[in-house]
Design a protein that fits this description.
160 residues; alpha+beta; 12% strand; elongated; RuBisCO; RuBisCO_lsu_fd_N
Length: 160
């Protein structure tokens, strides 16, 4: 935490910000009970040998997350908290997903064989890249970058 911010307060703030909290009081807070969606910081441990560093354990109710959506889950957990003013630094070190939630993920609509068949590439890993910069290239220059990547041996490119 920042100097002067107790670790318990920083942990609770991270849990709140990544679930039902916001940086200010809003009038709509009184229109609903958010207790069932609140993240909870249930333990704080000091990092051995580090006077100002702590490990915060935060748990979230499954109702907070949209079923089958990895994007929703990660956006909820880490979306805003990494720039949080109560903290000097923050790192996600572990994420445990309960089987009840992981069972909601359907997986890809088809397997690797379909992709290999589309690309006519077999017997080796598929290799791709993301074209950078993600903004600012003209259509002509973007196409040139894609062409050079594929000409150089990549199997596919993607955009951000």
């Amino acid at each position: 935490p920042q100097p002067g911010v107790p670790p318990e307060e920083a942990g609770a703030a991270v849990a709140a910000e990544s679930s039902t909290g916001t940086w200010t009081t809003v009038w709509t807070d009184g229109l609903t009970s958010l207790d069932r969606y609140k993240g909870r910081c249930y333990d704080i441990e000091p990092v051995p040998g580090e006077e100002t560093q702590f490990i915060a354990y935060v748990a979230y109710p499954l109702d907070l997350f949209e079923e089958g959506s990895v994007t929703n889950m990660f956006t909820s957990i880490v979306g805003n908290v990494f720039g949080f003013k109560a903290l000097r630094a923050l790192r996600l070190e572990d994420l445990r997903i309960p089987p009840a939630y992981s069972k909601t993920f359907q997986g890809p609509p088809h397997g690797i064989q379909v992709e290999r068949d589309k690309l006519n590439k077999y017997g080796r890993p598929l290799l791709g890249c993301t074209i950078k910069p993600k903004l600012g290239l003209s259509a002509k220059n973007y196409g040139r970058a894609v062409y050079e990547c594929l000409r150089g041996g990549l199997d596919f490119t993607k955009d951000d």
